[in-house]
Amino acid sequence: MVGYCPICGKPVYFGEKKRSLGRDYHPLCLKCQQCQRQLTPGQHAEHDEKPYCTNCYMKMFGTRGTSPRNQSNQKPPKYNLMRTNSLSTRIYVQQT
């Protein structure tokens, strides 16, 4: 069965595929959507079904610091665990 690359939409054949986060990519298509750095399967984060390196992901979608003033009436923010393939990397994102 031939899968299709989620980045370019072309068929990905068995001999050339890089499988990560449940999808098959061409080796040159598996790169960070922000900085264009080549990524290794399973060692990246995903947002809106697009791969990002850990640094760009945290800069763009990671937790934001909050100001200490005016927090007495506010509820603490809720966080969701984003899906990753790495056993040691867990990325939490604040719900909006």
TrEMBL record:
<keyword id="KW-0479">Metal-binding</keyword>
<feature type="domain" description="LIM zinc-binding">
    <location>
        <begin position="3"/>
        <end position="63"/>
    </location>
</feature>
<keyword id="KW-0862">Zinc</keyword>
<keyword id="KW-0440">LIM domain</keyword>
<dbReference type="Pfam" id="PF00412">
    <property type="entry name" value="LIM"/>
</dbReference>
<dbReference type="InterPro" id="IPR001781">
    <property type="entry name" value="Znf_LIM"/>
</dbReference>
<protein>
    <submittedName>
        <fullName>Cysteine-rich protein 1-like isoform X1</fullName>
    </submittedName>
</protein>
